[in-house]
Design a protein that fits this description.
By secondary structure, this protein is α/β, with parallel strands linked by helices. 49% of the residues lie in helices and 16% in strands. It is globular. The N and C termini lie far apart (41 Å).
């Protein structure tokens, strides 16, 4: 077992998942503004540190994805944030792409940037304590999209990124997100997500990336958020597993789903059924941002000094996600 495979398994095993706390300052400002909290470096840190020092970090969170600002900050006790996370038993990670920009000659599509200078940035992040990384490619669905150019360009970038990350002894999260935005059917989502993931692995293999030392972070197979034809949770589970069985090589140790526009409970319930019906060797778990944080953020915004109360909300959400990763979640436990 390689060192990279051991890191990936430590992040994903035993019902643990990933806390995605890597919102850019712009995104975090929008989230704080939505709950009437002023976005300052101190407030952004206070909320995140509240989560990182919660009790259920130990049993439910295997890895935390950080943003550049946060990985360089000190906690209230004077410890570097990566040290605080490591002390809970979780592995610190870092978002390394520089965002999705308009794809030239296809203005409705995006290409993720950030390869320039990445090798040097990775060395710095490794020294700060990061042992895994994240890069997100985004794809929109319509009759014409995602285009071949968007599928190929983003797959190529994800593969180049992954090779550089493994060269620096870190585990790359490969995140090809087919967006939920639109009125497309679940059938369309299945077809186009399968194309996207298959092409990603073609490129990863071409770039000699060690597939036993990566984590795949895909979307679940869902109808578009404006579609009139919603599918059941059982269908989400069936279609998602079907997609992954056909498009993901068996060497990949695990899959950590993004929540992608679902509510906290929807993301939990769908993961629970995927885990319960999982007939593959892949570990199935979560890499959630809003679906782990939103309720805690709303509670915290009423009194940002109420650390314990905020942690209680986060602990419950983390526990529900962990149970779902084991296929042991229920509505009764959710509402306790």
């Amino acid at each position: 077992m390689s060192e990279l495979n051991q890191i990936a398994l430590k992040i994903l095993s035993d019902g643990k998942g990933i806390l995605a706390a890597d919102e850019s300052n712009g995104t975090m400002t929008k989230r704080l503004k939505s709950v009437n909290v002023v976005s300052t470096p101190e407030n952004r840190l206070l909320f995140r540190e509240t989560l990182f020092s919660s009790e259920n970090m130990k049993d439910c969170i295997g890895g935390v994805i950080l943003y550049d600002e946060t990985i360089n900050q000190l906690s209230s006790s004077g410890k570097p944030i990566p040290v605080l996370i490591a002390e809970s038993g979780a592995i610190p990670g870092i978002k390394v792409d520089t965002g999705a920009k308009v794809l030239a000659n296809s203005p409705e599509e995006k290409i993720t940037e950030g390869l320039d200078g990445l090798r040097e940035r990775l060395k710095k992040y490794y020294e700060l304590g990061a042992r895994f990384t994240k890069w997100r490619g985004v794809y929109s669905i319509s009759k014409e999209h995602p285009s071949k150019v968007a599928i190929y360009s983003n797959a190529h970038s994800l593969a180049r990124y992954s090779a550089l990350v493994q060269e620096c002894n870190m585990v790359p999260i490969v995140e090809p997100e087919v967006l939920m935005d639109g009125d497309h059917s679940a059938e369309d989502c299945l077809k186009k997500t399968s194309l996207v993931i298959t092409k990603c692995f073609d490129e990863l293999i071409q770039h000699n990336v060690d597939l036993t030392g990566i984590i795949l972070k895909p979307n679940m197979i869902l109808s578009g958020n404006k579609s009139k034809n919603k599918i059941s949770n059982e269908e989400v589970s069936f279609n998602t597993l079907n997609c992954l069985k056909k498009s993901v090589p068996k060497e990949v140790p695990g899959i950590a789903f993004l929540s992608g526009g679902q509510t906290e409970v929807e993301a939990t319930e769908n993961l629970n059924l995927i885990s319960k019906n999982n007939d593959t060797n892949f570990i199935m778990t979560y890499s959630y941002g809003r679906a782990l944080q939103q309720s805690a953020l709303k509670f915290w915004s009423d009194d940002i000094k109420n650390i314990r109360g905020t942690q209680d909300i986060f602990n419950h959400r983390a526990k529900m996600c962990s149970l779902a990763a084991k296929g042991k979640w229920s509505k009764e436990l959710e509402n306790k």
